[in-house]
Amino acid sequence: MGHQEKNLDVVIVGAGVAGLYAIHKLRGLGFSVKAFEAGDGVGGTWYWNRYPGCRCDVESLEYSFSFDPELEQDWHWPERYGNQGEILEYVNHVADRFDLRRDIQFETRVTSAQFDDESGLWTIETDKGDVVKAPYCIMATGNLSTPRKPSIPGIDNFEGDWFHTGQWPHGGVDFTNKRVGIIGTGSSGVQSIPLIASQAKHLFVFQRTANFSLPARNEPMTDAREQPHKATYRDRRKAAYDTPFGIAGYPPPTKSALEVSEDERNAIFEAKWQEGGSISFLYSFTDLLTNKEANDTASDFVRNKIRATVKDEETAEALCPNDHPIGTKRLILDTNYYETYNRSNVDLVNIRKDPIQKITSTGIETQTQEYDLDVIVFATGFDAMTGAMKEIDIRTDAGADIQKKWQDGPATYLGIMMADFPNLFMVTGPQSPGVKSQMILSCEQHVNWIADCLVHLRNSNYRRIVPTQESEQDWVTHNNWVADQTLYPLANSWYMGSNIPGKPRVFMPYVGGVHTYKKKCDEVAAAGYEGFELSA
Ligand code: FAD
Ligand code: NAP
After folding, report:
1. Model's pTM, two decimal places?
2. Ligand 1 site, residue 62, Cβ cutoff 6 A
3. Does residue 1 have a pLDDT over 50?
């Protein structure tokens, strides 16, 4: 039995950092809101991804909300990069501190969203039978929230346990005395492998594609790191919006990798390698992401580090990425990843050479071998950027349908709205720089933009906003043009949809940088929402 709520202004789908901030911001502006969350708690990414080793790859002093100066002064991060538990604790603190839970209905998945032109209302339905109507709907459903396990034949026959990193059991998993197989060496695999290896009897890593990983150099938070940051927090938050990745404090590079001597270049890479972190490394030179020859110097530097660390030569070579320029896939940060392959209880299985054929009752069978396993871990990623939206039946009575709209890849205006779908907003949608940035900053920027837009509509007695076909098409074209100026499209990554068989190969994030993008969003708003149609 469903029920209908009256006088609701905005329905928000998702209670990760984006949904939570949307509740807070809109409530403060006098809008009535209601959020639905599939999980039984807040936190999104940090609620679901409880695998061992899960932590952020952006320093916590940056990867945190900026909307409340007192919050940022009060909170103490115990480590340079917060782990999953610490970040989840922080997000729960934010939910309590700002009393956000009272507007969230947990354990409820939104199944459909339908727009009716005459009433100007979205009707939201859930798997619990709720039917809720509101003029505006915000999809805060996440870019990496739809875990995907590959359809390898035989999984149902496996008599051991299997887990996906993105849906990890709340009580944790004990690998003691277990023979474990892990499939996938993206960020989730690389973070969990050292910890699983330290506990399991034996770990087999099934690697299809080698990835670049840099040392995080995580450490306990020091006063020397925390105090100066907190003393200049407001300035740093503001400065972050003037940077490509939304992270302040890294002086931008001034030289090409090709205009310095080999010795000077390697000394610069070495200093960045010792410092830890990916932004710092990618900021070594101006052209690492735009010039293949320049990029090769950085890729070679890291390959040489792998060779120097991993003792077995064949394993070292298999771990050296050779199919994409460094940085064109999400650059991974690790703690003792390559070192882990020197352990006697860890084997790398190169499934590029010896592909997996099937899963049997007792383990994984490749073309040439059988691996007996008690546990299989899928670190195989997500139906990224479009997956969560496409799982909801989003339609309008005028015939628009998200499945048809995005069948050849996503089309949006600014990654915030779509032509044909009035009053439907996305937070860090495709064709925005969200996933290429410090994402809490991008979530805040989007929510602030949406909030300003709703206030503008309210003050101007408008009720309806939708991008024109032309502005959407121009944005998609611009997005592709910007990507084509870079090396990004050279990688088979989830940015391209390459990890999901049958998904259209389209480069989805906006890679012109947070600074350029925010300026564009602000200009659009200042010009009275240029590229949109506003009506009563
Ligand atoms: P999410 O956190 O994904 O939240 C979306 C929520 O919507 C989820 O709780 C989901 O259950 C809910 N939902 C989805 N569909 C429905 C539905 N139909 N009905 C009801 N609820 C629904 N970014 C960084 O910038 N730095 C990092 O270090 C970093 N580390 C990451 C580590 C991991 C393991 C992963 C997976 C991602 C990481 N990211 C990182 C990206 C991260 O997703 C974002 O930083 C941020 O947490 C996204 O917040 P969100 O609210 O937009 O989405
Ligand atoms: P991912 O980057 O998409 O990696 C998935 C891995 O699984 C890849 O190695 C992929 O190999 C492999 N794989 C997929 N299907 C396979 C198949 N059928 N057979 C064999 N191997 C298969 O996913 P992820 O590691 O979960 O990370 C996703 C994103 O989440 C990251 O890029 C990052 O943005 C975010 N994240 C961040 C952190 C962090 O450090 N803070 C941690 C985790 C996740 P191929 O490359 O060959 O497809």
Report:
1. 0.97
2. no
3. no
For the domain 4-146+384-535, what is the CATH superfamily, name and number? FAD/NAD(P)-binding domain (3.50.50.60)
Asked if the domains at 4-146+384-535 and 147-211+329-381 fall in one CATH topology, the answer is: yes
State the fold for domain 147-211+329-381. Answer: FAD/NAD(P)-binding domain (3.50.50)
Would the CB of 230 count as within 6 Å of ligand 1? no
Whose atoms come closest to the Cα of 350: which ligand? 2
Kindly give the distance from the C-alpha atom of residue 303 to the centroid of ligand 2, in angstroms, as a whole number: 20
- What would the pLDDT profile of 317-340 be if each residue is shown by its tens digit? 999 999 999 999 989 999 999 999
Sequence spans of domains, the chain: 4-146+384-535, 147-211+329-381
Beta carbons of 218 and 79 less than 8 angstroms apart: yes
In this predicted structure, what is the pLDDT of residue 477?
Answer: 95
Ligand closest to CA 376: 2
Give the three-class secondary structure for 376: strand
Half-sphere exposure of 323 (CA within 13 A, CB side): 11
| Distance from the alpha carbon of residue 146 to the mean position of ligand 1, in angstroms | 9
Residue 329's alpha-carbon distances to 9, 183, 290, 348, 476, in angstroms, are 39, 18, 14, 21, 21
Average pLDDT over residues 114-132: 97
Ligand 2 within 6 A of CB of 188: yes
Residues 6+ apart with CB under 8 A from 347: 202, 203, 204, 205
pLDDT category at 159 given cuts 50, 70, 90 is: very high
CB 418 within 8 A of CB 411: yes
Q: Say if ligand 2 is within 6 A of residue 183 CB.
A: yes
**In the chain, pLDDT over 70 holds for what percent of residues?**
99
Rounded to the nearest integer, the mean pLDDT of the chain is: 96
Q: Is 389 in the pocket of ligand 1 (CB under 6 A)?
A: no
Q: In this model, does residue 3 exceed pLDDT 60?
A: no
**Which amino acid residue places its CA nearest to atom 3 of ligand 2?**
381
Mean pLDDT of the 390-407 span: 97
Question: Using CA positions, which residue lies closest to atom 40 of ligand 2?
Answer: 57
